[in-house]
Design goal:
Blueprint (H helix, E strand, L loop, with lengths): L1 H23 L4 H19 L4 H5 L5 H9 L1 H11 L7 H12 L19 E3 L15 E3 L8 E3 L2 E3 L9 H14 L2 E3 L7 H4 L4 E6 L15 H8 L4 E7 L11 E2 L6 H7 L7 E2 L10 H14 L5 E5 L4 H14 L5 E5 L10 H6 L4 H14 L7 E5 L5 H9 L4 E4 L1 H6 L22 H4 L4 H25 L13 E6 L2 E4 H4 L7 H5 L2 H9 L18
Parallel strand pairs: 4-13, 5-6, 6-7, 7-10, 10-11, 11-12, 12-13
Antiparallel strand pairs: 1-14, 2-3, 8-9, 14-15
Length: 537
């Protein structure tokens, strides 16, 4: 490990310099001073707990901070050339770090955005702003079939598994959630001691691999699921249908990360790449999905259950809605994951070309639920590159009740977006199963940063709502957000998109929805029908 090598090498060089000073004379004073100083710096770096990068890369890690001090743009140039492929922009990244550290978030001069650029979006303030509420509102998760509802925060930790993240990263995230009173999604890698140790509220995610509730042959184990779901820290259960960064394929944990501990938690072979199946075994139709939702709720003794998906065809979403109507039961929540969502490992072409972006997917699900008269029974969460108060406000306007963040929460724990997640060589100990690297992440320090980031971000979202004249999320409307559609014209979201009225699809489906509504079946997931380039199908 570099830190051991650095301290050892500097100790040897300092000792040699001292020996030469004694044997040959004062000409070696400069060498003693140089290597001695570097040794002191190295020891200070590996023993401090604030910066993971310095704990893993003593002495040379200071180059990153020196560049940042001299000129942020220069430091950013090196990061973007060497690390980031599709990162948050510089302003968003700085905002996350500053909120996590509890430092100043104001800046001089005006916006760095081109407000005349087509696609530019902005929120509409009022001439008579109000004061934000004293305490952030909560979102009640739990429909009529739920007996143990949960009050969700406006911003929560999105799904990240043990395996994708280190034990210390999960401990920090969960402790931050416990301190701040928000939820922590476990990801599909199972319910582990690192999720449970610090007592944070959990959304237990079950994927197509059924890790943590799995038989030896990879099928869902109802009794194991019920036993674990009974834990008081488990507040909700989420069934993962698809993930924004790689919709249509299962989750992937590279072989290098499948340690003995991971293999035991997931009941899979050690040192072998762990790939979840593309599809679930417990259902194959919309009706079977909704029945399984009801079964999961019974096994949890009435806790909220829901599912997460990256939206594909509108026909499939409407088919699920028809199944809810036919079965006369609904999930308690749906999490919409945008295609811009992040991941530790996925095929590049899936990341760039597969799946519906969050804006379109979120509005589709919201309108489908409204149009079928189901919206008041189901809460909608939004995930996929959520990082700021503005993101929270925008997603609520587009149809969400609450939001989840993954990348931003990782950055609050010290992630620098090195994009080495799949190599097991994360330089700051966040996305690795190498215990020597993970040890650099100090749980106490980083949990406080997670809590501060969430609190500051929600506070800013509420302040923005108040500037728009909204006392809370329920008063936000599509009229309050506008998009530039041309150099001489802007339109509000109310004008840009069709918003269905409650029950409209049941009464008389509008022309834009009629074909998909007609094609949707509670008994089949099927490709959308239409012209395929050769024949009508």
């Amino acid at each position: 490990m570099l830190r051991v090598f650095m301290v050892t090498a500097l100790s040897i060089l300092t000792a040699i310099s001292v020996l030469l000073l004694v044997l040959t004379g004062p000409g070696w004073w400069a060498s003693v001073a140089l290597f001695g100083l570097l040794l002191v710096v190295a020891i200070a770096d590996v023993t401090q707990k604030r910066h993971s990068i310095l704990r893993n890369y003593p002495v040379i890690g200071h180059m990153r901070f020196a560049l940042e001090y001299i000129r942020p743009e220069l430091q950013q140039y090196f990061i973007e050339r060497n690390y980031d492929g599709r990162p948050f922009d510089r302003d968003t990244r700085s905002l996350i770090y500053e909120r996590a550290k509890g430092t100043n978030q104001e800046q001089a001069f005006g916006t760095e955005r081109d407000v005349n650029e087509v696609g530019y979006e902005y929120l509409v303030h009022t001439t008579a702003p109000i004061e934000p509420p004293d305490a952030p509102p909560r979102v009640r998760i739990g429909g009529p079939d739920c007996t143990q509802p949960y009050d969700m925060a406006l911003l929560n930790v999105s799904a990240m598994s043990f395996g994708a993240l280190s034990a210390n990263a999960l401990l920090a995230l969960n402790k931050g959630a416990a301190m701040g009173g928000f939820a922590h999604d476990t990801g599909e890698g199972g319910l582990t001691e690192y999720h449970l140790r610090n007592g944070g509220d959990l959304v237990w995610e079950i994927g197509s691999g059924y890790f943590g509730a799995r038989t030896k042959d990879g099928r869902f184990d109802p009794q194991m699921f019920a036993d674990k779901a009974a834990h008081p820290s488990v507040k909700c259960v989420s069934l993962k249908l698809s993930q924004g960064a790689k919709p249509g394929i299962g989750g992937v944990l590279p072989a290098a990360k499948v340690t003995a501990e991971i293999a035991n938690a997931r009941n899979v072979p050690e040192g072998v790449k762990c790939v979840s199946p593309a599809a679930h075994k417990v259902f194959s139709t919309p009706r079977e999905l909704i029945r399984f939702m009801a079964t999961m709720r019974e096994l949890t003794q009435g806790k909220p259950v829901g599912f997460k998906l990256c939206v594909g065809s509108r026909t499939d979403v409407l088919a699920i809605c028809k199944a809810m109507l036919a079965e006369e039961t609904t999930p308690d929540f749906i999490i919409v994951d945008g295609s811009e969502g992040g991941t530790g490992a996925a095929p590049m072409e899936y990341e760039d070309h597969m799946g519906t972006p969050l804006t379109e997917g979120l509005m589709l699900v919201h309108n489908a639920l409204v149009g079928t008269g189901l919206r008041d029974r189901i809460r909608v969460g939004a995930s996929g590159k959520v990082a700021t108060g503005t993101d929270i406000v925008k997603r609520i306007i587009q149809g969400a009740d609450y939001t989840n963040a993954a990348r931003a929460m990782m950055m609050a724990t010290g992630c620098i977006q090195a994009q080495r997640c799949h190599t097991n060589q994360c330089p700051v100990g966040v996305a690795t199963q190498d215990p020597r690297r993970a040890r650099a992440l100090d749980v106490e320090n980083k949990s406080l940063r997670v809590q501060r980031f969430q609190e500051a971000t929600v506070s800013e979202a509420l302040r923005m709502m108040a500037s728009m004249g909204a006392a809370g999320p329920d008063q936000l409307t599509p009229l309050m957000m506008r998009r530039r559609i041309g150099h001489l014209n802007t339109k509000s979201y109310a004008e840009l998109y069709d918003w269905l009225a409650p029950g409209e699809l049941l009464a008389d489906a509008p022309q834009a929805w009629a074909q998909d509504w007609s094609n949707a079946s509670a008994d089949s997931f099927a490709p959308p029908q239409g012209y395929n380039g050769r024949t009508l199908v």
